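Take a record:
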Amino acid sequence: MSKPGKPEHVARHPPQLLDAVLREWGGQGDLWIFAYASLIWRPDFEFAEERFATLHGYHRALKMWSRINRGTPELPGLVFGLLPGGSCKGVAYRIPQAQVSTTLPILWEREMPNGGVYDPKWLRCKTALGDSRALAFTLSKRSPSHAGVLSEDHYRQIFLSASGRYGTTRDYAQLTYDKLRTLGIHDHALGKLLQLVKP
């Protein structure tokens, strides 16, 4: 198993939230994770199965501020979040029941730093082999990490300048776009943003 990426912040989310997520799961079967951005090209956890999946009611958006991983406090970068509305195509990963107690904390450390960046939710996603109830990391519009409406010029500036300990926002966005295309997923909104910095 590869080592998990370091979280964006040093402090950890209260353990009660992870406990609540595990209680909602119930422990009666395998656990599914819905991936829509970097978890697709760098999951950092072991899984038994992956399926193409569609989630209705949320969409992928490059609207979460990143002040360490893909930017700095002086020039924040951006990463993806799941925002309400529309639909999102991605990947559902199945974690066997017996491995959840060791695998989920690894994922949690990466995705859930302190500060309430993501709102973890159990959401229904559709796959060719049937629906699955999956854990998804959504972004609240009330979160201080939500970037809100950004102009094309602002996106262009971020793509050209923002860089953090894991690299640039532009590379992060391009890696996500390219991986989605290999899966047959065409994110037209993301493609339009990346065109802003094409030579």
User: Anything to note?
Assistant: The CA atoms of residues 3 and 44 lie 6 Å apart. The two ends are 38 Å apart (CA to CA). The first strand starts at residue 31 and ends at 35. Strands lie at 31-35, 49-66, 77-95, 119-127, 130-138, 163-164, 167-168.
